[in-house]
Design brief:
By secondary structure, the chain is an alpha/beta fold. The protein is about 30% helix and about 15% strand. A 4-stranded parallel β-sheet has the order 3-2-1-4, covered by helices on one side. The longest helix has 15 residues. The C terminus is likely disordered.
């Protein structure tokens, strides 16, 4: 199967520099915990694929670690690759590719990571009845969510929760079914999450919101209308604001791990 980004996603990520400036990074505690689960924490020069690396939000964190990982950053979007390559991260090789076309030898890496990208490789397109995985914390965040969903392009995203089907559609990889089922990944998935709050100025929140692909493609009056709605949501009388004029933006980082089959069972951290 060949993976193809949607035209809207390609257009929405054209301004990769803006994406890189305004999208958040990842909590170091999450990075550390995930690498431990993948059994590469403390493994010097481990070879890691960062699949769908984008502009390198996760790649940078891998490159900065004491393990001196050898990272292959695989990214299909040309402008995203250009921004990432310009960072000149040591021990990072930036390559063109996707989930079905990774220019590496089979069984030649120690771990594969997909940070905010795995859902893009999901072939399932029936998302009309998908659950809303994100439950906003405040009224203004709920209003922002409604704006975002009003421009939903039906492209699979993490919030649709369909990425799990890649794993759930497999038969359970027990010793009695592994040969017949021929699964790719060990089951069940390991999963954890971390709640976080960032205090940001409304201008910074808008720029982050605008970097979403379905918003980034908007132009002229339509974009101005969305900005007006977002500004109204953030300036409502019941919105909490600190002395610096910043709003609390709540989030949850979800991370999951598994191993290829055959491999170490998930309960042993494979």
């Amino acid at each position: 199967m060949t993976f193809q980004s949607s035209n809207q996603a390609n257009e929405g990520f054209t301004d990769a520099s803006s994406y890189d400036r305004h999208r958040p990074s990842y909590p170091l505690e999450v990075v550390d915990a995930l690498l431990a689960r993948l059994q590469v924490k403390g493994v010097r020069s481990a070879r890691i694929i960062d699949l769908g690396a984008g502009t390198g939000k996760f790649t940078e964190l891998l490159a900065a670690r004491d393990e001196k990982y050898n990272v292959v950053a695989v990214e299909p979007h040309e402008e995203m690759r250009r921004v990432l390559s310009a960072k000149r991260l040591s021990t990072v090789d930036v390559v063109d590719g996707d989930a079905s076309n990774m220019p590496v030898e089979s069984h030649s890496v120690d771990a594969v990571v997909a940070a905010q990208a795995f859902h893009c490789n999901n072939a399932e397109q029936a998302i009309d009845n998908a659950p809303e995985a994100w439950a906003p914390t405040t009224e203004w965040e709920s209003a922002m969510k409604d704006i975002m969903w009003s421009y939903d392009d039906q492209h699979p995203r993490f919030r649709h929760d369909l990425w799990r089907k890649v794993f759930d559609n497999q038969l359970s990889s027990t010793p009695f079914t592994i040969q017949a089922a021929d699964p790719l990944f060990s089951l069940p998935l390991g999963e954890d999450s971390v709640e976080l709050t960032h205090w940001l100025h409304p201008d910074a929140i808008w720029e982050r919101f605008r970097s979403l692909s379905q918003i980034a493609v908007l132009k002229g009056d339509e974009l101005a209308g969305v900005k007006d709605k977002a500004s109204a949501a953030m300036s409502a009388s019941n919105v909490e604001v600190n002395d610096n004029g910043e709003l609390p933006l709540h989030g949850r980082v979800v991370y999951a791990w598994t191993s290829s089959v055959p491999g170490a069972p998930i309960k042993e951290g494979g």
